[in-house]
């Protein structure tokens, strides 16, 4: 059945109440305007935003935990949980003071010790945090409201680091090993996570935390006042795009985070529905490759693949008739951001020669090892990219084992360092938020730190040395020069393959007002007419 035919049927089903079991209505006394029903990009398989790097876990984290600093609309860090900080003249000692009124959802006061423990756990999993740990001589609480960090080397990105998903949790929770999942979800932010109502694959429910004290400032991206106007927010997992659109059309849900690109025209024609592109930075699509095992432990073979990647093919497969929603060529840094350049881009923009690539594959010593390519069945963009990648692999003579699975399963499997035949993998398609991969400081896929790095675990002393040099660069011009050299090296060593930049639209009922413009869904300030 064609999707548009199915959509019509689904919309009709919604109109006659057939979607009611999946989307229970609140009691009338609860107030329809006080409940927000939201369809997220996928399933919240794991709610620990430190243990997993998924964007949906980060979105969940931003709802229930607050941060010391938050990025504003200009991507500058602003005080959030702190009242302010002091920096010594030698730039080696930072002292932070928490603002008044900070409480956890269990009613306990947020203390400096909670912040130190949260920083330590978060830092072991994030590039900016790992740099902080390497430069920190001591982190200690001065009293309940103040803490101090002493460095062995200045770190100009300290505040930016704290704004990089450094969620503040109670000390007892943050003592959990960062490579293990937490078992409690006591937050510090504007919404409480109702864990008893969470059903993975179905729903996640949040309630307003009425003791949260927002900053007395206008909201600006992740900074400013986070005022919760909804008593209850329901994340409803709806893997079928047509069902989700039908539910939005009839008002069964209020907000659809990420509608399929090929349904945008239909959504734009619906009454009481608005389609918007609030993300001005986009995401970088990429092909992750496993450097630990054959066949992609061979840079020669990776360069053969890179030589025939046509980013326009990948983008067209995902976006279709919406060319204004993608950009090519895209290097290893987000196009449009300061560190992006055309250094070495000819490897992506030159003629694509399949016959030459097939010869390069033979010359690389490839022994017909299976390429286990994982594809997320419930993420249409990444699934489309995986199909294009599989076809390209076959064209150049690779033995492809295509494995389709839901995103939660893929996330679990990509952490395995075993051989592909023993539960591991060779490649998968994904996207990374443009702000995160805009420069070397937080660009996880560009790290060359081997087994301690991102999934794929490339080892590159040159990339690591240049990243360190970038962090200590005296000015933006030096940073740009270093970033350009990192891109040239990346096209030779191929830690990952960039597939293009795209912008995700969102769709919501027109009675929703005051959405905070952002690259991912934010639930404060938002209200219903």
TrEMBL record:
PROSITE patterns, per database record: TAT
Domain called Solute-binding protein family: residue spans: 76-426
Subcellular location: Periplasm
Keyword list, A-Z: Signal
Family matches, as CDD domains: PBP2_NikA_DppA_OppA_like_16
Keyword Signal annotated: yes
Protein's UniProt name: ABC transporter substrate-binding protein
């Amino acid at each position: 059945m064609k999707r548009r035919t199915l959509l019509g049927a689904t919309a009709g089903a919604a109109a006659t109440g057939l979607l009611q079991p999946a989307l229970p209505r609140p009691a009338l006394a609860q107030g329809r305007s006080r409940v927000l029903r939201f369809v997220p990009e996928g399933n919240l398989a794991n709610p620990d935003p430190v243990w997993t790097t998924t964007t949906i876990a980060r979105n969940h984290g931003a709802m229930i935990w607050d941060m010391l600093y938050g990025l504003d609309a200009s991507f500058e860090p602003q005080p959030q949980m702190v009242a302010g900080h002091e920096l010594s003249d030698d730039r080696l000692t930072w002292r932070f003071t928490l603002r008044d009124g900070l409480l956890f959802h269990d009613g306990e006061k947020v203390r400096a010790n909670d912040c130190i423990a949260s920083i330590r756990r978060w830092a072991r999993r994030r590039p900016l945090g790992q740099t902080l740990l390497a430069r920190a001589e001591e982190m200690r609480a001065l009293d309940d409201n103040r803490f101090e960090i002493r460095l062995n080397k200045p770190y100009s990105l300290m505040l930016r680091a704290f704004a990089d998903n450094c969620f503040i949790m109670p000390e007892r929770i943050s003592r959990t090993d960062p490579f293990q999942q937490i078992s409690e979800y006591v937050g510090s932010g504007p919404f409480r996570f109702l864990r008893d109502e969470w059903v993975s694959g179905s729903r996640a429910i949040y309630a307003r935390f009425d003791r949260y004290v927002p900053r007395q400032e206008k909201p600006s991206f992740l900074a400013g006042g986070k005022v919760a106007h909804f008593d209850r927010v329901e994340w409803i997992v709806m893997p079928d795009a047509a069902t989700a659109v039908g539910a939005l059309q009839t008002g069964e849900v209020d907000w659809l985070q990420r509608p399929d690109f090929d349904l945008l025209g239909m959504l734009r024609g619906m009454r009481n529905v608005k389609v918007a592109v609030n993300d001005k930075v986009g995401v970088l699509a990429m092909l992750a490759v496993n450097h630990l095992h054959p066949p992609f432990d061979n840079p020669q073979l990776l360069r053969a693949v890179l030589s025939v990647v046509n980013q326009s093919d990948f983008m067209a497969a995902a976006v279709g008739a919406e060319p204004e929603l993608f950009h090519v060529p895209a290097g290893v840094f987000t196009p449009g951001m300061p560190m992006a350049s055309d250094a070495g881009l000819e490897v992506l923009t030159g003629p694509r020669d399949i016959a030459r690539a097939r010869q390069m594959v033979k010359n690389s010593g490839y022994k017909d090892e299976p390429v286990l390519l994982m594809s997320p069945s419930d993420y249409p963009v990444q699934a489309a990219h995986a199909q294009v990648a599989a076809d390209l692999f076959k064209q150049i003579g690779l033995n492809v084992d295509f494995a389709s699975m839901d995103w939660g399963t893929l996330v679990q499997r990509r952490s395995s360092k075993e051989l592909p035949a023993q539960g591991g993998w060779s490649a998968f398609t994904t996207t990374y938020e443009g702000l995160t991969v805009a420069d070397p400081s937080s660009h996880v896929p560009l790290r060359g730190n081997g087994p301690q790095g991102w999934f794929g675990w490339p080892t590159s002393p040159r990339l690591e040395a240049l990243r360190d040099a970038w962090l200590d660069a005296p000015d933006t011009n030096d940073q740009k020069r270093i970033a350009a050299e990192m891109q040239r090296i990346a096209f030779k060593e191929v830690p990952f393959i960039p597939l293009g930049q795209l912008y995700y639209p969102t769709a919501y009922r027109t009675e929703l007002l005051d959405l905070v413009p952002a690259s991912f869904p934010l639930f404060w300030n938002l209200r219903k007419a």
